[in-house]
Amino acid sequence: MTITYPAARSAWRAGLLAASLLALASCATGPPPIARHYETLIQPSATPSACRVDNPVEVAAATIPFSRPVEASCRFIAEFDRFEQEALRPLARRYFSEDLKTIIHYGAYTCRTTRAGRESEHARGLAMDVAGFELADGREVLVKDAWSRRDREGRFLRAVAQAACRYFNEVLTPDSDSDHANHFHLDLGPYRLCVRR
Fold this sequence. Notes:
4 helices
């Protein structure tokens, strides 16, 4: 039998979020401090030159906890934090009258190329694949399930994708191709592309 302690879990989440936010504040001024839930990653000597990440970090949350820790460039996480505060959380309150609890994702940093053979922004820590969102009441709004629907969840996801285009250079959705059928790809690479209906 598993025993959970809601008060302890809430305190842990609050501490996790506070540590992440404190470290995010230093992204613009230099290398982030090493903190328990936000630490320097990916030693340059251990990675191929094509997969070097500027100011790499691991973070468990921006303003909202991630479903698992994210490895990315500090610059990407700082922009994701801004996206959450200015667009994502207000959209959740508008469509559902409540806040978000968790960002569900498939990962950020990974050393690989695209199908076309060019360097993926994931390899530079400048991209993340977002699969959906958990609301404060525990409901999940997943791209794979709700993107093509015309109900509140579908409209919310389309509004999120449209808003993301103001923060990220490339936003790919299930309308882009079959590779993105179950998630949004958000990146800060050199190309400008926003795929939406």
